[in-house]
């Protein structure tokens, strides 16, 4: 058959399959040759070859026979010099062979690289993230899909990306046979736009539909981007219908993402929606302690006291990324200047970070709460009386002012009836000792801190 004859045949097919099908599936076919009753067509991708073999193979065979060609089988293959793997899909007469499932080379996977540090081992679990962690663990086992999608949401720097990478690492170890793809919603959009521009939408669809586990980070990014949302919706549906696992993250719950189509919102809510709550003091301290382990190897001989760690966990409550950054800076600074990590160095080195994450808790607020807690008058807390029933609450309030505000000792002294800074220092030290010796004091402080921070 000549190219011209194939051209005529294509036009006939256009009348039968319609304009869209023709443009997507028939036009890209390049006639190669007929040999021993087998008509071979070159196709740009395996996916396209498989699809045409399954859906239009018999029709093409029939048209070839009608135009007088002696053909008993049609064969669609990616030419050997193409970037695609040269596998073939074919249709025989009178029975069509089942086309093989689309296959993907590892190099074709569209995912972003994974961060080596983001594993389950390095993820510290506490009350605020235990549900998200448990759900991520379950998905990472790679067993039957129980909730689809898993939707993780939470504020900035609370560990969403860390958990997604951890799932991907775990799956790569447990189920190396699976195509696991992690990428941000932004990368999804750029791939989609590029595919549109290069007229490679079929490749795009092939790649994303051949994935076994798809993770899309920061999905709120596609809100308001209509065509990307549309494509995301189709990809999502195709994978869910194929019982493939999807994991999505966002900075808020699906229902709260503005400009996201309702049908997508409702799809995202179909599986398990879990949030990562803001960190609490214990979790922050746990994260710092686990990071210190790593720094011990990197900076041998450079010690950091619990007091400094507690101070950081108290004072930097914005997000874990900032907390980690503060610790990194502290180690780097201390090692550069060859000094020990003391409270003084910490306050100097991290002055800007501490200022930025400064709490809005005021000295007055602390004094009021503490006097309410111990059932004494505010004037007695600030006044000169030294009886234990006033002095102890006063010291607790001084201690909390030091911990929860960035006020200096002289400033705190002024607000406590013009006391000297050494009196404040003494009060703070006394409570530090009592916290260790007296369970009741420790409990009171914890309770007060929680109410003040809430
Ligand atoms: N529970 C945790 N244990 C250990 N490290 C954590 C934990 N939570 C967060 N981190 C660390 O905090 C940093 C920020 O986390 P991550 O990038 O996962 O946040 P995110 O929620 O994806 O933030 P964003 O909204 O900015 O994308 C990372 O270095 C991560 O390892």
TrEMBL record:
Region (Disordered): 87-110
Entry keyword annotation includes DNA-binding: yes
CDD domains reported in the protein's UniProt record: AAA (cd00009), Bac_DnaA_C (cd06571)
Subcellular location: Cytoplasm
InterPro entries (alphabetical): AAA+_ATPase (IPR003593), Chromosome_initiator_DnaA (IPR001957), Chromosome_initiator_DnaA-like (IPR020591), Chromosome_initiator_DnaA_CS (IPR018312), DnaA_C (IPR013159), DnaA_dom (IPR013317), DnaA_N_dom (IPR024633), DnaA_N_sf (IPR038454)
Gene3D superfamilies noted in UniProt: 1.10.1750.10, 1.10.8.60, 3.30.300.180, P-loop containing nucleotide triphosphate hydrolases
Keyword ATP-binding assigned: yes
Annotated segments matching region Domain I, interacts with DnaA modulators: 1-81
Span list, region Domain IV, binds dsDNA: 335-454
Domain AAA+ ATPase: 146-276
UniProt note: domains: Domain I is involved in oligomerization and binding regulators, domain II is flexibile and of varying length in different bacteria, domain III forms the AAA+ region, while domain IV binds dsDNA.
Alphabetical list of HAMAP family matching this protein: DnaA_bact (MF_00377)
Subunit (UniProt): Oligomerizes as a right-handed, spiral filament on DNA at oriC.
PANTHER family: CHROMOSOMAL REPLICATION INITIATOR PROTEIN DNAA (PTHR30050)
Main function: Plays an essential role in the initiation and regulation of chromosomal replication. ATP-DnaA binds to the origin of replication (oriC) to initiate formation of the DNA replication initiation complex once per cell cycle. Binds the DnaA box (a 9 base pair repeat at the origin) and separates the double-stranded (ds)DNA. Forms a right-handed helical filament on oriC DNA; dsDNA binds to the exterior of the filament while single-stranded (ss)DNA is stabiized in the filament's interior.
Protein name: Chromosomal replication initiator protein DnaA
Organism encoding this protein: Seohaeicola saemankumensis
């Amino acid at each position: 058959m000549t190219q011209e004859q194939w051209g005529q045949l294509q036009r006939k097919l256009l009348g039968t399959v319609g304009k869209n099908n023709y443009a997507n599936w028939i036009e890209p076919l390049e006639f190669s040759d007929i040999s021993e009753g087998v008509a071979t067509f070159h196709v740009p991708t395996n996916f396209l070859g498989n699809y045409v073999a399954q859906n239009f193979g018999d029709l093409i065979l029939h048209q070839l026979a009608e135009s007088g060609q002696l053909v008993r089988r049609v064969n669609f293959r990616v030419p050997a010099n193409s970037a695609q793997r040269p596998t073939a899909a074919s249709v025989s007469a009178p029975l069509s062979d089942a086309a093989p499932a689309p296959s993907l080379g590892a190099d074709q996977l569209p995912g972003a690289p994974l961060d080596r540090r983001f594993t389950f081992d390095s993820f510290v679990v506490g009350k605020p993230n235990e549900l998200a962690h448990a759900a991520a663990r379950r998905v990472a086992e790679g067993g039957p899909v129980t909730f689809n999608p898993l939707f993780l949401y939470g504020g900035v720097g609370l560990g969403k990306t860390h958990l997604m990478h951890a799932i991907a690492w775990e799956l790569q170890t447990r189920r190396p046979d699976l195509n696991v793809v992690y990428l941000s919603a932004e990368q999804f959009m750029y791939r989609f736009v590029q595919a549109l521009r290069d007229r490679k939408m079929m490749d795009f669809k092939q790649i994303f539909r051949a994935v076994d586990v798809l993770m899309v980070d920061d999905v709120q990014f596609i809100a308001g981007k209509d065509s990307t949302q549309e494509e995301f919706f189709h990809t999502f549906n195709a994978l869910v219908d194929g019982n493939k696992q999807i994991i999505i993250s966002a900075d808020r719950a699906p229902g709260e993402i503005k400009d996201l189509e309702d049908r997508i919102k409702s799809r995202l809510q179909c599986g398990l929606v879990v949030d990562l709550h803001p960190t609490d003091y214990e979790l922050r301290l746990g994260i710092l302690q686990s990071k210190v382990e790593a720094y011990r190897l990197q900076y041998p001989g450079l010690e950091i006291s619990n007091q400094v760690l507690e101070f950081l966990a108290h004072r930097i409550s914005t997000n874990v990324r900032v907390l980690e950054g503060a610790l990194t800076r502290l180690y780097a600074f201390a090692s550069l200047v060859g000094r020990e990590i003391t409270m003084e160095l910490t306050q100097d080195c991290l002055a800007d970070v501490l200022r930025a994450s400064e709490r809005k808790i005021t000295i007055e607020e602390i004094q009021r709460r503490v006097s309410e807690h111990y059932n004494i008058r505010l004037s007695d807390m600030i006044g000169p009386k030294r009886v234990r029933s006033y002095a102890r609450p006063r010291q607790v309030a001084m201690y909390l002012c030091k911990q929860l505000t960035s006020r200096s000792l002289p400033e705190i002294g002024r607000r406590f009836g013009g006391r000297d800074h050494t009196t404040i220092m003494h009060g703070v030290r006394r409570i530090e000792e009592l916290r260790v010796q007296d369970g009741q004091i420790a409990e009171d402080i914890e309770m007060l801190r929680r109410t003040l921070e809430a």
